[in-house]
Amino acid sequence: MVHKKTDARYALVRGHIPKVLQKRFRNYCVEKEIDYSQGLEDILTIFFQLLDKGDIPHLQTISITIADLIKDWNLEKLAKLSEVKIENLQAIRAGERPTNDDLIGLGIILCKEDGEPWTTDELIEIRDRTFYYLPDLSKQRESPPIS
To answer: For residues 136, 137, 142 and 147, what is the CA-based torsion angle, rounded to 10 degrees?
Structure first.
């Protein structure tokens, strides 16, 4: 039996990722009952299939956070209008993860640049993208070459 380690068709990929993303990846592999190599191969295959089909352009255009959406607000006024505790708003502004209840309250008040309100689902997507560290694919990052 040939192992991936000695198979010339395979290469080693290595890098550092945020711990929260590593934990999510580990859980994915445990749930699927696969090793990390197979998990990484599965995820990269799916990612590149979606990228090639153009099914992930929304990740390229959204680079805001919930903290960005409330940064210009008077927090006391926002707390009254949204019924979100001011302490929660301060924590969100400082970069902490908002709860679903926080997002429901904020969804009543916050609007997009075109005046349309943000839906709770959109705010959840922004929050989850931010806290699961999905990269903004529109930004070019320099990475060290893989050798």
So the answer is: 120
Determine what percent of the chain is predicted with pLDDT higher than 70: 81
Structural tokens at position 23: 């934990």
Domain boundaries, the chain: 19-55, 66-131
Q: What is the pLDDT of residues 85-99, one digit of tens each?
A: 999 999 999 988 899
Q: How many residues does the chain have?
A: 147
For the cut 80, the answer to whether the pLDDT of residue 52 exceeds it is no
Question: Is 40 in a helix, a strand, or coil?
Answer: helix
Calpha distance 44→86 (Å, rounded): 41
The answer to whether the Cα torsion of 46, 123, 136, 28 is positive or negative is negative
The CB-side HSE value for 112 (13 A sphere, CA atoms) comes to: 10
